[in-house]
Amino acid sequence: MHAGASGLAVLGLATLAGLPAPVAAQAATAALSRQSFVAAAVRRAGPAVVTIDTVRTVAAAGSAGGLLNDPLLRQFFGLPPGGSAGPSQRTQRSQGSGVIFQADGLVITNAHVVEGTDRLTVGLQGGQRVEGRVVGADPVTDLAVVRLVGPGPWPVAPLGNSDALQVGDWAIAVGNPFGLDHTVTLGIVSSLNRNASKLGLTDKRLDLIQTDAAINPGNSGGPLLNADGEVVGINALVRSGPGAGLGFAIPINRARGIVAQLLATGRVSHPVIGVGLNSLSQPNPLGLKSGVPVATVQAGGPAARAGLQVGDVILAVRGRPVATPSQVIASVEGAVVGEPMALRVNRNGTELLLTVVPNEMGRAAPR
Description:
The protein contains nine helices and 20 strands. Strand 10 (223-225) and strand 11 form a beta hairpin. It is an alpha+beta fold. It has helices at 3-11, 13-16, 21-35, 37-45, 71-76, 111-114, 252-265, 302-306, 325-333; strands at 49-59, 89-102, 106-109, 119-123, 129-138, 143-148, 170-175, 183-195, 207-211, 223-225, 231-241, 244-251, 271-272, 275-277, 292-297, 313-317, 320-321, 341-347, 350-356, 359-360. Strands 1-2-3-6-5-4 form a six-stranded antiparallel β-barrel. The protein is 20% helix and 35% strand.
C-alpha cells in the first residue's frame, strides 16, 4: 500500500469519500504527519547530535621493538649491545557519538569514547567540523563532557526526565553506528534499573535503561530520546550474541549530576563504605520483607570502623529505606566523602543505628 492509500486507511474511506480530491489528499498527508512522531522527535533533537572522531597513540603489539632486543639483530642494525629498543607506537582512530546540551558548546558523551585521545574532532549535522576539548571524564559512570572550540551558538537537544520512563515507552536511538552519520533506530524501553555489575561491568556504578532500539558500535555517547524528542539517556553499550541484541543507556537524570561535578572540578567523587551486598531471600530467618544483607565487610574500611558485620541487613541509608543492592549503592553515591551518614541495620532481629564515614573510591582508608 502506498503512502496516500495508507493515509486514507487511517482516516477511513467513508470519511474522505465525499471530499474533493485535493482536500482528501491534504487530510491524508496530515494524518501521516501525525503518525510520524519519530520524525518530529528527531527534527527536535537531531541537529544537536554529533560525531566524535578521535586520534590516540598506542603501543603497537608485535612490533619490531621486541626483535631489536635480540643481540644479533642489534649488531646487524648497528645498534650498541644491551639496552632495549622499546615498543613502537601507532596511531589509532575511532569514532563515537555525542549530544550538545548547552548552547555554549558543551557535549555529553561516553568516557570510553574520549579516553586517552590526543586529538578530538566533532562533526555536526550540516557537515561543519570543529575541534573539541575534553572538560572531564568519569570512567566509573562512563560519562564525559567535551567543549566545542568556536563561537557558536550551537544547536541544543532538550533534556527530559528519565525518572518518568516506564517499560513499554517508545525509545529512539540517534547516533553514528559504523561511521554512518545520524542514523535513527526505534524501539521501546524494555526494562529499567539494569545494574551494570550484572552485565559484567563490575567497575561501573550504574543502573541502566534497557532498550531494543538498535545500538551499534559508533552509537556510544549518542542520545536515547523519548517520543517528544527529549534526551532521556546516553547510549552506552550493546549486548550481542545468540538470542541477544540488547542496548543500554545511562539515565539522563544520573548524567546531570555527573556532568555538574565534571564542569565544577573536572572529576567526580564516588563515596564508598567497603561492603559487599546480597539480595534478601524470601522467606528469611528474620522475617524481613525488605532490606539488603551484608555479604562482606572490607577490613579497616568505613563500614568495619562503624561496626557493621557480615550478616547484618541494611534497612535504610541516610534515612532512606533500601530493598536492593543498587539502592544502597545509589544512596551511598549521594553521600559526601568524609561526612558521617546514618545506616540503619537489623542484626539478629535487633535494629541498630550506625554512623559511617565514606571514603573516596580508589583511595586508601585513612589510618
